[in-house]
Amino acid sequence: MPAASRRRRYPSDTSVAEWALLEPLLPVPACRTKTGGHPEKWPRREIVDGIRYIVDNGAKWRALPADFPPWETVYGFFWRWNRAGVVTYIRDQLRRRIRTGKGRCPHPVTLIVDSQSVKGASTVGRTSRGYDAAKKINGRKRHITVDTLGLPVMITVTPADIQDRDAARDVFWRLRLPAADHPGLGGSRLCRRPRGLGPRPPLAHPAHRLPPQGHEGLRRPAPSLES
User: Fold this and answer.
1) For 179-207, what is each residue's pLDDT tens digit?
2) Whole-model pTM?
3) DSSP assignments along the chain, one per residue
């Protein structure tokens, strides 16, 4: 049985309404599948709250407060879910829910792409950093793609010397859209599929790519000192 639930005291903790939205989007625990597995020791909500605490505070994994599950457990779940595409799946499903609630197309019709150069710390290697001559910044550049409601569609990080047009081309490639068909970033049509691709396939839940969800004994890389 999962450990007893802790008292919620942080601004990043999920509310009852938020958890009702998030829980169905998470993979089914291994113990509830046909293949079976060990029951999870910690409640899923505690794991998600721990991840949200790290994101909200920008803290190191090792600095996770003691009233959360062990940081190794929280990090392990985040690593597996992120690798399997669960984080992206949750983002896309929540965005579609908001868009349809406002009477919009579930898929963004217009994209807005912008970037920001950030100075890199001394621990950032040369292979992943560059010099932005326009901003006179040596570091990295984050390219954020949103819809007209400001909802995130994709976020990529590149060396700061990467031009916005090159990053936009990569974004369209990742979205399965030919960049040549979208010379203007503000007019990217995502509801209309390119000819020859057929109807849009349904978004499959990425849970089938996950290893068993019992966190004990799974191999995963240790977080870096910067995490």
Assistant:
1) 444 333 333 333 333 333 344 334 344 44
2) 0.69
3) -PPPPPPP-STTSPPHHHHHHHGGGSPPPGGGSSS--PPPSS-HHHHHHHHHHHHHHT--GGG--TTSSPHHHHHHHHHHHHHTTHHHHHHHHHHHHHHHHTT--SS-SS-EEEEEEEEPPTTS-GGG-EEETTTTEEEEEEEEEE-TT--EEEEEEEETTS-HHHHHHHHHHHTT--GGG-SSGGG---SSPPTTS-SPPP---GGGGPPPS--TT---PPPPTT-
